[in-house]
Amino acid sequence: MADRGGIKRKALSVTDKLNILKMYDEKSVNKNQKEIAKEMDLPVSTLRTILANKSKIESSAMTGSCKRQKIKHGKFDELEHILLEWFNQARTLNLPVNGNIVTEKAHEIAKRLNIDEFSGSGGWIDRFKKRHGIVYRQICGEAESVNDADIAAWSENILPNILKEYSSNDIFNADEFGLFFKLMPDKSLVFKREKCHGGKLSKERLSVLACTNATGSQKLRLLVIGKSKAPRCFKNVRIFPCDYVSQNRAWMTGDIFINWIKPLDLSFKKQNRNILLFVDNCPAHPTNIPLENIKLVFLPPNATAKLQPLDQGIIKVLKQKYRKKLVLRYLKEMESKNPAKKLDVLDALHYVSAAWDEITADVIKNCFRKAKFVEGDYSAVEKSCEDFQELEEFPGYAEIDEDVATSNIRSIDQIITDKIAPADVTSIDEESEDEEEDDTTPILPVVNALDYVNELRRLVASFDDADESLNHLNKIENFLYSKNIKNMKQRKIDDFLK
User: What Gene3D superfamilies is this protein classified in (predicted)?
Assistant: First the structure.
């Protein structure tokens, strides 16, 4: 069929339309729509239709296949929207899903929404799959199940359009990872490939939320989620190196995520900054959080292994640095004559925060480049992930917990409830049994600590290039002296009152 201008109409896929939108943005500065349509060999009416449906096209590309030629909506649009969200979170967690399971969930949603005329026939399930680009593949790891065409469409068309109004300093990525925080290198085989959805091993695990901007100039404080609400090792501790909350399985939940992102949004509002924050389609990330200065962008489902900057090496390097500290502790304990102190949650908070602080801006920039957020070479990512000689004696130790679950799948009822009302901040799930650490090391008296500082100074002074470390020790000594004087004054006042 020909248009009025005599140009043949073409069946355009979602990818084609994304390319047209990109070309239009580049050419519209100097040319009008008729001139651009002529260059693209398109009817003007087609170009105008594509421009009018820009947001729908981009949304469709992010949630389904880019090979489709039409963006169709089914008869039961609300039902399909809820079902697709459930399906995407199942894919994110690599849960096996087939046509029968999808149909069963569709009937469950129809019943919940009081849709009596829904039949869930074989024809409907086929059309649903086609509309949303769903193909059942064998589960063999997230990276292998990603559609390369969808990856290319995201990286070349959708992502540049999202990023164009933001500077690199205002582009952030946040992601959770699981951490077997107590795991020493001699126990690695027990935990190998453990997904840890619950049970005894959950006591050995923490979930950690990391967030950074694209330049590496702003690494936010880590959020650590543990099982115990008040471990004994926290007694008398007033300052923590990172934020800590508890959840009965040490999982990220929607409430915890909201409690994390709302104060962050307020902080950026005070700074008068508009932020772009990319997160994955994890079930614990609500899609409708009311935010003012943070634009929350969800990465395409089941594609974070290739599209998320933190997954391109940042988390890997963080874990390597953490495990290096455990290896050094392990080797020290082997040489020490004193009985080894068990690693506790507080130790883990200090170690993981120190590891996060040690990650350089170059590593972060390279990982954002590898995820196509920034143009340029990213070869340094591989180099930064390999430079850990201390871990060579323990192969596989650094990656031992890469498949650990950090959240649970949301039920159909939870998804429907979230669709009805915007997500709001509620109390964090703290049904923890408050299982505390078995032993607690008492805090060293200030007077004894000053003696140790003096011994440390003598040791450090025996090495070359120790100026900076000696300065740090002097600062620590001055700090401890000020606390000791304050305690002495308080004791004198107490004695006088007695």
Answer: Homeodomain-like, Ribonuclease H-like superfamily/Ribonuclease H
| Buried b or exposed e, range 84-105, using 16+ CB within 10 angstroms | bbbbbbbbbbbeebeeeebbeb
Q: Which residue has the higher pLDDT, 398 or 114?
A: 114
Q: How far apart are CA 394 and CA 392, in angstroms?
A: 5
Centroid of chain to Cα 282: 9
Where do we find the tokens 């929607």? 254
Domains 77-132 and 167-184+203-407 share a fold: no
The CATH code belonging to domain 77-132 is: 1.10.10.60
HSE-CB at 46 with a 13 A cutoff on CA atoms is 24
CB 228 within 8 A of CB 185: no
- Reading across the β-sheet that carries 223-226, which strands appear in turn? 243-246, 223-226, 205-213, 171-180, 275-279, 294-298
CATH 3.40.1350: does it fit domain 167-184+203-407? no
DSSP string, 299-357: PPTT-HHHH-GGGGTHHHHHHHHHHHHHHHHHHHHHH-SSPPPPP-HHHHHHHHHHHHH
Instruction: State the Cα–Cα distance between residues 151 and 130, nearest whole angstrom.
Output: 18
The kind and range of the H/E element at 15 are helix 14-27
The per-residue pLDDT for 491 is 52
H helices of 53-169, where? Answer: 54-63, 77-92, 99-112, 122-131, 148-153, 159-163
pLDDT band at 191 (very low <50, low <70, confident <90, very high): very low
Distance CA 342, CA 422 (A): 44
Cα gap 351→147, rounded to integer Å: 37
Strand partners, 212: 173, 219
Determine the distance from the C-alpha atom of residue 158 to the mean position of all C-alpha atoms in its chain, rounded to a whole number.
20
What's the CATH number for 14-63? 1.10.10
Measured CA to CA in angstroms, residue 74 lies from 17, 87, 459 at distances of 21, 16, 73
Q: What rounded mean pLDDT belongs to the chain? A: 77
Q: What is the identity of the amino acid at 337?
A: K
Quote the tokens at residue 214. Answer: 């694209």
Helix, strand and coil percent figures for the chain, each rounded to 5: 50, 10, 40
The token duo for 170 is 């205002």
Q: Which pTM value belongs to this model?
A: 0.71
* pLDDT, mean of residues 453-472: 83
CA pseudo-torsion sign 58, 60, 63, 67: negative
Q: Where are the domains of the chain?
A: 14-63, 77-132, 167-184+203-407, 446-488
Q: Does residue 431 register a pLDDT over 80?
A: no
Give yes or no for residue 326 having a pLDDT over 80: yes
Mean pLDDT within 220-225: 97
223-226 and 294-298 strand pairing: unpaired
Confidence tier at 138 by pLDDT (50, 70, 90): very low
Q: Tell whether the model's pLDDT for residue 257 goes beyond 80.
A: yes
Question: At 66, which amino acid appears?
Answer: C
The answer to whether 66 and 153 have CB atoms below 8 angstroms apart is yes
